[in-house]
Amino acid sequence: MVMEATESTILCSKETEGMASIMTQMAIGNSYSTTPVVKLRFSIGEVDKKVKVWADTWVETQMTMGQINQMKLNDNSTINALQDRLDNLNPKKNL
């Protein structure tokens, strides 16, 4: 789901499900926190007259008293999967 879109960023989010949800809640939340949500921010900019896109991803949950706990997802598997998705969006590459 797109949560926010500006000229230079797009923020998307999705609730976790199944075992990923349980493990994430154990890692950064507790039994009273909200279902963890994965967030993905695309930052768009121009470098050397070419459009570049960067992606950052994290998971977050809200605790009982309103505190938001976050954990960046910056392991190699996540970074490589995001880069692969971005590479496959290149229209010139698909010709």
What labels describe this entry?
alpha+beta; single chain; 5-stranded antiparallel beta sheet; 95 residues; 2 helices
What does this structure look like?
- A five-stranded antiparallel β-sheet has the order 1-2-3-4-5, covered by helices on one side.
- The chain has two helices and five strands, in the order E-E-H-E-E-E-H.
- A hairpin with a 2-residue loop joins strand 3 (37-47) and strand 4.
- The chain has 95 residues and is an alpha+beta fold.
- The chain has helices spanning 18-28, 76-88, and strands at 2-5, 9-15, 37-47, 50-62, 68-72.
Topology:
Blueprint: E1 2-5, E2 9-15, H1 18-28, E3 37-47, E4 50-62, E5 68-72, H2 76-88
Antiparallel strand pairs: 1-2, 2-3, 3-4, 4-5
Short description:
This protein is of the alpha+beta class and 95 residues long. The chain has two helices and five strands.
